[in-house]
Amino acid sequence: MTRSKQTNLVHGGTKRSQWNEVSEALFLTQGFVYDTAEAAEQRFVKTGPDEYIYARYGNPTVAMFEERMALLEGTEDGFACASGMAAVNGALVSMLRAGDHIVSARALFGSCLYILEEVLTRYGVEVTFVDGEDLDQWRKAVRADTKAVFFESMSNPTLELVDIESVAEIAHAVGAKVVVDNVFSTPVYSKAVEQGADIVVYSTTKHVDGQGRCLGGVILGTREHIRGVVEPYMKHTGGSMSPFNAWVQLKGLETVGLRVRAQTAGALAIAEALEGHPKLSQVVYPGLVSHPQHDLAMRQLGAGGTMVALEVKGGKEAAFRFLNGLEIAVISNNLGDAKSIATHPATTTHQRLKPEQRASLGISDGWIRFSVGIEEPQDLIDDLLQALDAV
To answer: Are strands 341-343 and 367-371 parallel, antiparallel or unpaired?
Structure first.
């Protein structure tokens, strides 16, 4: 029987113990007991799908989370990680070696840029950056020896989209793997695998947990790649997810579809209400018809997502007055939460970038990243408007 995404969000991957519990069991254990020494030896030589050695290698609760995420994304398998950045690092470092070449979009979260600019190059990987929106730059940058391409399907924090299908076609023509960081697009709206992604990465801290509790990440792809390439690297370097975090995020998956759709409706209402405000240079939201990539957003996701970007006139001073004037939304650097969160990227998430780098990415001192929560949209609109009055 074929099941929809929403049904898989509630039931996918569930394995019950001998007690037949309703809620997924939390196996809060580091290791596992073997009946005999011979059984221990055999387990280390070859393990079955329900046989475990050590929590860093695998755990029943974590396995349920991995299977549910794979069902949601439409991949064969997944590996759950300690954080979103553990997932990005694991996805890239596990598959690249000294002398390999990777092409990446330039518009990335600051820590993702660090992995590409500092970590990969330190170990002899050649990295070429392009403007993700420009397909001609992708065509020129991808070479016969390119091993992978990497990009955020919707960039943090400027909300620019990369055409997954077109970039995948360019990459696959030379045999390169397509690695997509899909956080802003969310697994609820994602069609990345259908559109050509080979490996999809999420920070499950965002949206999946979505309630400010636990860090998490996941790498999704074919079973051959996840178990043959990703797992050996992750289990030996220690980036796997804890059973407790997996259990919390299994609970988060039950409601992520409801939350994300409510957040998206709120984001559109906010963007429409604030567009053209005299104290804002621009309101950026892919769900707005005025967004230059609106058609791509509708084709690729079918929705504008949960994030709105605002550029406050007057730079940092005006942006800070706006932030300090908020009464409902909180100031933090997380996103995808049930609570609305406002972030000033230039001084927080992207502060390690040089001013000229931020400028080239479109991150001005007045730029605000606004993650829409599940509060009543009109309350948020009223809060944003009164905060703008303080500017």
So the answer is: antiparallel
Q: Is 364 strand, coil or helix? A: coil
| Phi, psi angle pair for 110, to nearest 5° | -55, -40
- Which string of DSSP letters, residue by residue, matches 13-39? T----TT--SSPP----SB---SSHHH
Would you say domain 5-252 falls under CATH 3.30.565.10? no
The kind and range of the H/E element at 293 are none
Of 90, 55, 115, whose CA–CA distance to 220 is shortest? Answer: 90
pLDDT along the chain (391 residues), means of 10: 80 82 88 90 75 90 96 96 98 98 94 95 97 97 98 96 98 98 96 98 97 97 97 95 97 96 98 98 98 97 98 97 97 96 95 87 95 98 97 94
The vertex-90 CA angle with 79 and 237, nearest 5°, equals 90
Gap between the Cα atoms of 102 and 361, Å rounded: 20
b/e per residue, 226-261, with b = 16+ CB within 10 A?
A: beebbbebbbeeebbbbbebbbbbbebbebbbebbb
Contact 263, 374 (CB under 8 A): yes
For the CA atoms of 358, 359, 365, 366, the dihedral, rounded to the nearest 10 degrees, stands at -120
Q: Give pLDDT, residue 238.
A: 94
Residue 167 tokens read as 């970039």
CA distance 382 to 307: 18
CA 68 from chain center: how many Å?
Answer: 16
Residue 376: name the closest of 286, 257, 284, 269 by CA. Answer: 269
Provide the Cα torsion 10, 13, 19, 22; round to 10°. 0
Cite the DSSP H helix spans in the chain.
Answer: 5-11, 37-45, 60-73, 84-93, 110-114, 121-122, 135-141, 164-172, 186-189, 223-225, 231-237, 243-274, 294-300, 315-325, 355-361, 377-389
176 SS3 class:
coil
pTM (2 decimals)? 0.95
- CATH hierarchy code of domain 257-389: 3.90.1150.10
Domain boundaries, the chain: 5-252, 257-389
